[in-house]
Write a structure and sequence with these properties.
Elements: H1 9-27, H2 34-51, H3 58-66, H4 78-102, H5 120-124
Helix pairs in contact: 1-2, 1-3, 3-4
Length: about 120
């Protein structure tokens, strides 16, 4: 199944940001009927309740950053993108340092071999 047919974790924030921008058009339109403004504000409040802190969630922000379709464009601000990028970089460095300190290094005996300069291929031709 193609990833485009399902909502992935990295798409959640994009949909949330898109919906917020769309709802703001209704909320701040002075010519809009007040019932529509009220409904848009209620929908925005509900969306904020469930999705406002997606970018602060470590796993979700990493998913957005690591998704090649979105990278930094999946974040609401460049600051949130940079924060996630630095955090992920530190996490990767920690893993690398832990692997270096935890794995015993096995030294293999070294032997030197001298190879003949004549080739067996040339001898058979």
């Amino acid at each position: 199944m193609s990833a485009e047919n399902v909502v992935t974790i990295s798409k959640q924030n994009l949909f949330y940001l898109f919906l917020l921008e769309h709802l703001r058009k209704f909320i701040f339109d002075i010519n809009m009927h007040r019932d529509i403004i009220s409904m848009a504000a209620e929908i925005k409040a509900t969306l904020d309740k469930y999705f406002k802190n997606i970018e602060e969630n470590y796993v979700q922000s990493q998913a957005i950053l690591l998704d090649p379709r979105f990278k930094k464009y999946g974040f609401s601000s460049n600051n949130k993108f940079e924060t996630c990028k630095v955090s992920l970089g530190r996490k990767l460095q920690e893993i690398n340092v832990q692997n270096m300190s935890n794995e015993p290094v096995e030294e293999l005996p070294t032997t030197s071999t001298v190879q003949s300069s004549t080739s067996t291929y040339l001898e058979t031709v």
